[in-house]
Amino acid sequence: MTELPPLTPQLVLAATALVVFGIDTLSPDDDTNTLLAGVATTGTLLSAGIAAWFLSAGTGDFSFVQFDGALVVDALSLFFAFVVGTVATLVVVASHDYLADQEHVAEFYSLTLLAATGMSLMASANSLVTVFISLELASIPSYVLVSYLKTNRGSVEAGLKYFLVGALSSAIMVYGISLIYAATGVMGLAPIAETFGNGVEFVGVLGLGIVMLVAGFAFKTASVPFHFWAPEAYEGAPAPVSAFISSASKAAGFAVLFRVFTTAFPLEVIAGSVVDWSLLFAALAVVTMTLGNFAAATQENVKRMLAYSSVGHAGYVLIGLAALQSGGGAENSFVLGASMMHLLVYGFMNTGAFLFVALAEYWGVGRTFEDYNGLAERAPVACVAMTVFMFSLAGLPVGGGFLSKYVLFAGAVQSGFAWLAAVAAINSALSLFYYSRVVKAIWIEDPSDDLALTGQPTGLYVAVLAAAVGTVALLVAFDPVAQTANHAADVLFQL
Amino acid sequence: MMIEALIGVTLLSAFVVMLAPDRVAGKLAAGLSLLPVAGSLWMFGQFDGSGNALFESGTLAFETMTRWITIGPYTLNWHVGIDGISMPLVVLSTILTTLAIMSAWTPIDERESQFYALMLFMEASLLGVFTALDFFVWFVFWEFVLVPMYFLIGIWGGPRRKYAAIKFFVYTNVASLVMFIGFMALVFGLDVNTMDMPAIAQAIEAGAFTTTYGLGEETLKVVAFFAMFFGFAVKVPTVPLHTWLPDAHVQAPTPASVMLAGVLLKMGTYALLRFNFTMLPGVASDYAVLIAALAVVSVIYGAMLALAQQDLKRIVAYSSVSSMGYVILGLVAYNVYGLGGATFQMVAHGLISGLMFMCVGVIYNTAHTRMVGDLSGIADKMPVTAAVFVAAAFGYMGLPLMAGFAGELFIFLGGFSAEFAYAQLFTALAMFGIVIVAGYLLFAMQRVLFGPFSADTDYDIVPASTHDTVPIVTLVLLVIVLGTVPELFYGMIQDAVTPMVDAMASAVAPVFGGELL
User: Fold this and answer.
1) What is the pLDDT averaged over residues A88-95?
2) Which residues in chain B have their CB less than 8 angstroms from residue A429's CB?
3) What is the pTM of this model?
4) Which residues pair with A368 in a beta bridge?
């Protein structure tokens, strides 16, 4: 019996992207939307499924080092490969209807798949070189996807903004990488940590490099101070792309962030001598969640509200790094695992919320809260799903969001960061205000008279309902996720 | 597995009703809601629990406990079970839901399937609240209840429904958060790796504190007690945290008011009993005077507010504040009569206040006004409704042989034999509440039901239809049955609260007591 290569999830995604290109080359003029969507769905689903299978089969218990240490497959990378694969599946299924009248459909699917490959690889990146390459592989298709509706000014503008901020942060990041290389002379994450064994040299250069590296990750995860692009890009982009970027891309950004900082810059060595990055992340977490929440509360546009809420959630997830302690042991994997759990649950509920927006856009409903008035009278089932997403995002126990938030805050308390948990809990309570505005609009307000919904967007419906079922199922069956995430964090910390 | 089946069937019914067409939804929901009624009555018949759920000595009926989630060192369990305190409340929830669904047939005429689905969804959540014994499971259900009520008020409510719905939601949600944090602080201070309520209660009793955040064990207990007390007092509600209630009640459609007054308010007192008074009896007795004062203020002030109202629904709403004050007085008395009476009063008041709201609803269905000044002498036109209304009002005033009498009698007996300072004085003051109750109810009854007929409304006053009178007549009968044979519930309640009193007696040196038991 031959064994599958450990990188199968990523290989499947890349191969599917090529198959999609191939189909488009063979029959460029045909209306192959359904076929392409089917192929893309199969690929993403397979990728997520294999990742889940590997996880349950115990592949992640060891670190499979690939390409001379440039890539690694462990529980963390498989966990995030699963998240990316799942989100990509939901997005691809939903895109089938969303793209019905568009041109260049094949490019859309293959770019999505390539971006997913990049995101999946980010979780496996084990050297600063592969970190940067996979990050760019994820980013460049994303720029194109955001401006996919090229006759739509909003979409093009969003793409440009996203690209400019992205290019800037990439440049800063590369410079940071070069500084770190200058200080240590190696690129691999583990080798970097090893050089600290003989004492840390070039403290200033290294510290500057680390801080600049953070800039790149802050961009990818839409954290302060590189969050400006998020509301613009999410608002202008086609809604499925917004869903994809805000869920999968954010998760991948965090995956690589977790790995780089825990492997290459162990807090035990770096905090005392160079820069206490956990304090840096604590500050970023507080600012990010507070800014995201308060900005979200003032929005009139649902998509922008979701964008800022996504910034807020990045702030919660940052707690996972902020609450790490040197020599923390089990507490460290508890809180880092909690961040991973939250990203997985977030993958379902946030993707679902954006796909509901996609559904609304498909129907030609406007984008503000008022435009959503009375939607429940026309589409009750989808609105039940949206209600689940909103309440779960707010942390009410109708979905897994409650549990993952709770574990995250409890982890922070356990590591002695009660103040951070308190700030997060207050933010979370306030967030109910703006999430419930959507619920109020769709259920309680009366619809305008000319609200008519036409079309049978089966794919969108399937994706939204699947996300809702996933969100609720994660409340009931949270145990496997919790176990896997904790285990992945254990493997990362080599406990 | 019986509890899971009960909750599961109710939840499934909610989905079925949601997908049913509007015109059959009401009948279908009522029919399906008979399943949990039958289930809960069967459980009542088979009930074999003894003692208190949170004590080591207690045995639970229909208990299941399986691992739900393990996170790091913590294990959360799916732990449900029924003891003598929860059994009556489970029966109350199922019966009242069915009757409330029937009472909705007339007033609810749009988006019916959604309405009835939400009612059933709420019932399932309520059953969860009263049976869950793991804090997390309990909290999930506790928050679940908010969601359907928010929609019931917000969609089918009166003119100011949006304001009332959001006020209800925000008020109770903030309260939940404070309670949650208070309880969590307590649990993290304990040497337990679970959220199992019995385990936590026993750990607190054993004094197994490891961390106290530099507060000192007693201080931590007091802080946690008051955080939880605040959270639950909003739900009860206790003066001065009651301001959401009149808005919610007046704007809510009648069936939702019935559930709100009949069962949702009991969640607050049930939680007070389970958490504050069972887990932290020491703090409860240290601050008994303060809590009793709050209870008496609720009784008197609530009744005075009811006296000042013109809207029948507001009268009944404020009178709930008053009645729930008695429950808290019974809890703080902390003897078998007090605790038992408080629990019994939860059920009795659930039935009677539900009945009162239904009566007001039946009158409103035909008159389209609830103002006392607009109506006069409608007993001639609506004889059955008027008769039931009179019976309900007397039940509220505590007429012997009706459920309210038994509950209040036990509470006053408990109050007079309580051991905290000025207990007798507080109880005597609280009893004056009954005089005021009699005042406003007799006044309202006399104006609305009797005297020469006149109605300041554009609608004809016609007798209520059969499906409107069936629920209210059923409720009157239940109130009388429970008042005549309080033993039906009181036996098991007494069995469940006695261990609490014993534990307290062994912890605090008895001054006197036991004579009445």
Assistant:
1) 95
2) 173-174, 177
3) 0.91
4) A301
